[in-house]
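Box 4.2: Ligand-aware structure prediction
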Amino acid sequence: MKICELFRENRTVFSFEIFPPKKDGSIETVYKTLDELTDLKPDFISVTYGAGGSLPGCSTREIVSIIKEKYHTESIAHLTCVNSTKTDIDRIIEEFKASGIENVLALRGDINPDIEPKKEFLHASELISYMRERSDLSFSGACYPEGHPESGSLNEDIDNLKRKVDAGASHLMSQLFFDNDFFYRFLEKARAKGINVPIEAGIMPCVNAKQIQRMVTMCGASLPHKFTRLIARYGDSPEAMREAGIAYAVDQIIDLAANGVDGIHLYTMNNPYVAKKISESVSRVIR
Ligand code: FAD
């Protein structure tokens, strides 16, 4: 099923993101994570893509295919293009077709200062246009409630987002944010620019203070006082931080659902305990 079709019903779509196991992990850990996450009946699960390769049997494509075939849950493969040639993408299209994959989150990817970009695809919109001409895949795109860190302004970034939607992105998934007001402001501007595809809000529960500080440094999300107070108070106590982080994410989700958001995309960080606690707390609110 194409992801955009999930949004035709009048309810809040609820999806998860996972990442393939690290090089020192194993396929068993993926199965264990998926056993628990799919029990929670998300609408779909997305699988991130790392340019550094993967364990044998655990590539993004293979995990996306397992989610669909073994767990009968819809799935979406992240794919970056900054270090790919057109020949690479032609091969990936064939592999996706052979694996029964229908949905792709088309991304540019971050530019690594130590690796010269291939320059055949400069933006995610170019990847979408190229793949769309050569396949029946359905495309999603990333969006940034506080603006992409490289863009001059939020307005400029939204103009570029419109290009991505015009190229064929039929669904958008947002970068994480901790202050819902940024998301509402972004949504209003995006709709005013004629971006009418479903937009899911990206929510990352803060269950580990160091991990969240690393993520925030990378993506530039603002931290409201309410949130920094939690980290200051509970950051050194893993169990208290986990409970406070879950409560904060639940609060964000309830507010977003009450405001009629199209969907919630939960960055699970492969942590089924956290995903379960959050799913249980919001099940009546989002369904
Ligand atoms: P683009 O849409 O190409 O935008 C990048 C920048 O270029 C923006 O500043 C934009 O305003 C500008 N731009 C776009 N089009 C034009 C144009 N035509 N002319 C001029 N400027 C333009 N990274 C990974 O490596 N693996 C993942 O699995 C992954 N998953 C992600 C999932 C989500 C939901 C999000 C939000 C991000 C994810 N990322 C991932 C990170 C992403 O790769 C980076 O944020 C990257 O820097 C930008 O990717 P993009 O697809 O948004 O790029």
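In the box above, the bound molecule is flavin-adenine dinucleotide. The chain has one domain: 12-286.
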